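EI: anyone free to look at a 209-residue chain?
SC: sure, send it
EI:
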Amino acid sequence: MNNMQHNMQHQKDKNGEGMKLVASLTSKRSRSSFVKELLKMPGGENILDCIQCGLCAGSCPTRFAMEYSPMQIIKMMHLGMREKVLSSSTIWICSSCYACYARCPRAINITTLMMSLRNLAIRESFVDRKGVKPKFHISFFEIVNKYGRMHEPELLTRILKKSDLRSLFHFAGLGWRLLKKGKLQIRAPKIEQGTDLSNILEKTSEEES
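SC: here you go
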């Protein structure tokens, strides 16, 4: 009876070790897969060169509002934490000031990488598309694709909550003052090479997907 129990326990230990090995291999595979994905993204070409010096985190003007610092986000990328990275608020709080890229000793274009991560997060539904920041991001792209340049009144009408009367009146007053000074156009101006721009944006979207 004792020998039987011993054999069963030995088999259980072997199975446990096998499960751990499979989990470890799966984890390494998924980590490697995410890193390879990042290396192909705009801004992610030098992601493995990061030395975790912290200059990006120290230079970031919006670090105080971020869930994770730029340095931490890069480390999470190295560890293959795909879901955590794509669902993090950090990629949306980035102000695209390029201070991190300008000071990075390894020339990692974190700002452009953050933009690429936003696009990926939207495509794979890691964010609420109706949230203010994703909505701004999507609307900005759609308006530029439509007119070839930004049209602020349309952007504002897309992202403002119609139920927020205070904000509506505030921006209506601001818009009227800008309109009187000739700083704002009601009708969206189109660029001459609109078709060329649409083709470029379409090709870029295809390459990203």
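EI: Residues 21 and 31 are 15 Å apart (CA to CA).
SC: 👍
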